[in-house]
């Protein structure tokens, strides 16, 4: 009796939280591989310079 509510309620909560977690990971990979930032004055270009 470790679960504190009805099984269906717990299953719904687990499904929603799992979908949110998967969406966050998907967004992370999209932003990691295709950031869309093309402004050469963006601070990331100062951090990612070849001479650093």
Rg: 20 Å
Question: How many runs of DSSP E, i.e. beta strands?
Answer: 0
Biggest beta sheet attributes: none
The unreliable regions are none
Percentage of helical residues? 55-70%
Secondary-structure element order, as H and E? Answer: HH
Overall, the morphology is: rod-shaped
Q: What is the percentage of strand-forming residues?
A: under 5%
Indicate the structural class: mainly alpha
Rounded to the nearest angstrom, the distance between the terminal CA atoms is: 56 Å
Put simply, the count of helices is 2
Question: Mean of the pLDDT scores?
Answer: 83
In words, what does this structure look like?
- The chain is rod-shaped and about 60 Å long.
- The chain contains 2 helices and no strands.
- 62% of the residues lie in helices and 0% in strands.
- The longest helix is centred in the middle third of the chain and has 27 residues, at 7-33.
- The chain has 52 residues and is mostly helical.
Please tag this protein with its features:
52 residues; mainly alpha; 0% strand
Outline:
The chain is built from two helices and no strands.
Task: Set down the secondary structure blueprint.
Blueprint: H1 7-33, H2 43-47
């Amino acid at each position: 009796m470790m679960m504190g509510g009805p099984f269906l309620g717990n299953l719904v909560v687990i499904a929603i939280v799992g979908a949110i977690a998967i969406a966050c990971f998907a967004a992370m990979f999209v932003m990691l591989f295709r950031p869309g930032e093309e402004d050469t004055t963006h601070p990331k270009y100062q951090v990612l310079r070849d001479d650093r």
